[in-house]
Design brief:
alpha+beta, Alpha-Beta Plaits, four-stranded antiparallel sheet, 7 helices
């Protein structure tokens, strides 16, 4: 039995309908995963499953999600070991937990694409690639940064963002 973390790119189905976490936990149970639990209402799922590759779980969750909710959503899955490794690599531990963001990537982010983001950065912002994931210290509210709107799937690849507080919260759930 292994523990996995699934991160949904979006829980918005339509402008006036979002997936509630109870429905996400129910989907995980329907797919045969055990002990599904969620953290905050933004698409963070922790569950137990037989030994499988994360990509196999991504496919199963994405297909199940689309069948149940009628919309495709990218889902990134990490094992408990790789999640804890991600936690240990935060290059901006001195930043504020709600301003340091990691874009957890399905495939390693292309350094050239990250380099193209640098002109959008403002004073105090920092950016780093660690283990294929993109770390950003927004040094202020991410929503007020031009950089945030550039972090799209089309521009840098399939991934989803979580702030450091959420990353740590998920780590506590699997310890």
């Amino acid at each position: 039995m292994n523990t996995f973390i699934a991160l949904l790119h979006s829980i918005v189905l339509t402008p006036d309908r979002r997936v509630i976490m109870e429905d996400l936990r129910a989907l995980a149970k329907e797919l045969g995963y055990r002990e599904p639990r969620t953290l905050v209402s933004t698409g963070n799922l922790v569950f137990e499953a037989d030994e499988m590759r994360p990509h196999e779980l991504e496919v199963a969750l994405e297909e199940g999600f689309e069948e149940k909710f009628g919309k495709h959503v990218d889902i990134i899955v990490r094992s408990d070991c790789t999640w804890m490794a991600l936690c240990s690599t935060n290059p901006f531990r001195d930043g504020s937990g709600d301003q340091v963001i990691v874009r957890v990537m399905r495939l390693p982010v292309d350094p050239e694409k990250v380099e193209a983001l640098k002109p959008l950065m403002t004073e105090g912002q920092r950016i780093a690639i660690v283990g294929g994931d993109l770390w950003i210290d927004f040094a202020g509210k991410p929503s007020q940064s031009k950089l945030l709107s550039a972090l799209t799937t089309k521009r840098i690849g399939i991934g989803t963002m979580r702030n450091w507080n959420t990353v740590c919260g998920l780590a506590q759930m699997i310890m």
